[in-house]
Amino acid sequence: MAPSSDQSLIPGFLYSSKILSHLDQGLPASTTSIVSHSPYGTSHNKSPMIQAPKESIRMYSPAYYAACSAGGIFSCGLTHMAVTPLDLVKCNMQIDPVKYKNITSGFGVLLKEQGAKGFFRGWVPTLLGYSAQGACKFGFYEFFKKYYSDLAGPENAVKYKTFIYLAGSASAEVIADVALCPMEAVKVRVQTQPGFARGLADGFPKFVKAEGAAGLYKGLVPLWGRQIPYTMMKFASFETIVELIYKHAIPTPKEKCSKSSQLGVSFAAGYIAGVLCAIVSHPADNLVSFLNNAKGATIGDAVKKIGVVGLFTRGLPLRIVMIGTLTGAQWGLYDSFKVFVGLPTTGGSARAPVPVK
């Protein structure tokens, strides 16, 4: 019987190591029914595989993608809002390194000029923008990961899993940045130009009046340049690191680990992935901050003013701390939400058990 259209070819190895063991040995797909169970239907009670509730959320159904999108809102919107003070200092260090020489002096200058309240300037566009981005990023990542896996076929989905992670995350981020860009433009202007506006309510119409509606998307290409490599690294490295942790650092297969242990792995792998993300995407982050701060500025103007070396180094230590913490928290919150609604945590299939003879 042909597999259901709802079944993905990659989720088998993502969520059940038993299917992977059979694929690796080149056994016919039909033999997997002897020792493995579908993540969508009923299964034997002794199966250690993490499953979604039988009657609640069916894997890879519209409700599943909606739940993943909701998890993305929860993880991205709240975490980005929480690190607004770090983001504020980072943006100002990128725009005016003479005035904001380092992290310590940057916080000191902001405290002296704007008071403690100033540390959360721009939190509303941050919350709204990154909530929209998170919904698209995580929801579409799950969608495209399944879609590209189905196109590849079972053997290739396993063999080229990293390429599927990269392609799925890149596709999702293209959409996510369209949702983020207007709020990011207003956020940067509010945070880096004192007196421009108090926040979103007065900053948005003032920005549109000055730049036009098209100005909200002036930074879209640099934003893609920052976010697409960032997200590709974020998802592909996370999935790989989780798999390596379960393979080399934890003696117990993932499916037998407690939920709290799995969430701890998600945070640790997310933090490491975040450090890599910060390094890869930092030059484009400097460009986004420069272009959204200076009216009529071009990428050439940014490179000339900041310098090639400055694009890679200005504000980087702070961004590593910020993005590492942010990404670790995002993966922890995202997988916590998935567990809360009865879905399996992301990535990291455990060692394959010995096949049944």
From TrEMBL:
Q: Where are the Solcar repeats?
A: 63-147, 160-244, 261-340
Transmembrane helix: is it a keyword of this entry?
A: yes
**Compartmental location:** Mitochondrion inner membrane
A single BP term in Gene Ontology: response to osmotic stress
Q: Name one GO molecular function term.
A: mRNA binding
Q: Which GO terms describe its cellular component?
A: mitochondrial inner membrane
Determine if Secreted is one of this entry's keywords: no
Alphabetically list the UniProt keywords: Membrane, Mitochondrion, Mitochondrion inner membrane, Repeat, Transit peptide, Transmembrane, Transmembrane helix, Transport
* Topological type in the membrane: Multi-pass membrane protein
Q: Which domain of life is it from?
A: Eukaryota
Q: Which Pfam families match?
A: Mito_carr (PF00153)
State the family named in the UniProt similarity comment for this chain: Belongs to the mitochondrial carrier (TC 2.A.29) family.
Q: What does this protein do?
A: Transport of phosphate groups from the cytosol to the mitochondrial matrix. Mediates salt stress tolerance through an ATP-dependent pathway and via modulation of the gibberellin metabolism.
What's the protein called, per UniProt? Answer: Uncharacterized protein
Origin species, per record, is Clitoria ternatea (Butterfly pea)
